TrEMBL record:
Residues 71-99 are annotated as: Disordered. InterPro entries: Diphthamide-biosynth_chaperone (IPR052276), DnaJ_domain (IPR001623), J_dom_sf (IPR036869). Residues 9-70 form the J domain. PANTHER family: DNAJ DOMAIN (PROKARYOTIC HEAT SHOCK PROTEIN)-RELATED, J DOMAIN-CONTAINING PROTEIN. It holds the Pfam family DnaJ. This is DnaJ domain-containing protein.
Amino acid sequence: MSASPLSASAYEILGVAPSASDDELRRAYRARLRETHPDTGGDDAAFIRVRRAWELIGTIEARAAYDRGAGQESAWRVTPTEAPKTDTRPRARSHGHPGGWRRERYVELVREWAGAGVELPDPYAADVVRSAPDDLRHLLAGALAEEATARTIAHLGIGFTVWHGVAAGDRILDHIVLSPSGLYGIASADFGGEVRFRRGELIGEAVRGETPVAVLLAGMRAAAKAARVRFGGAIVVLPDDALAQPVTPLGAVRGVPVVVVRRSVLGHLLRQGVPGARPIGGNELFDVRTRLQATVRFV
């Protein structure tokens, strides 16, 4: 089970309330096993999720740990993207605060949702996140996605420069990455489910009618105009389990190739370059970096 704030809880997978008794929990588990077992026509993936949910809350000790948020709550907190002090390898040049504006908005709204006068010492507590409205959990999931992308890029080395949380006209551009393989605009997302594609855009129940590719390209156009630079490619980064294949090209929009990638292959793609993207080197790379550094503003 994913640690995403959008993932169904173990209780939801088994179809019981968090207040269910141990006997109710056990009966629900057995019923869900029968419903999802592949030998009786069930779905193999659903069967695996049911088994995993039982591992998480099937015993008194495991259930208590799960209810405290062990293994999930820590992943929802702010985590540094800097290298450990023992890591002396050169890092990518990094500017801005990945996921920062989403985290600030999440904390503000989750306190409003809790209500005036309600003590909410920890907005990342497991019970708070799991019970928060869908829009709030989407904000936190987006922040986590940006932070995960930032960690990947940081490890790519000093040849890479990245700007996080860029104000681009009336849009927000999650990341701008300058590398020898090209200049890229990147959107980091987590919709909490599998996505599909139609006419160069992401679709699916989890996407909820959003147009992430169009939003990304609009932000890139605004940033390109302000800095007088030219992007070589657009990348949408999603959790691995959201995509059926590692890299999905969506074609070119106004000459800019667009790809959707699993998070685990982002580093490789940035090193190798998006197919069709124009590489940047020498004096041009220095010029592009200077232009961006002078014009980029952060949210």
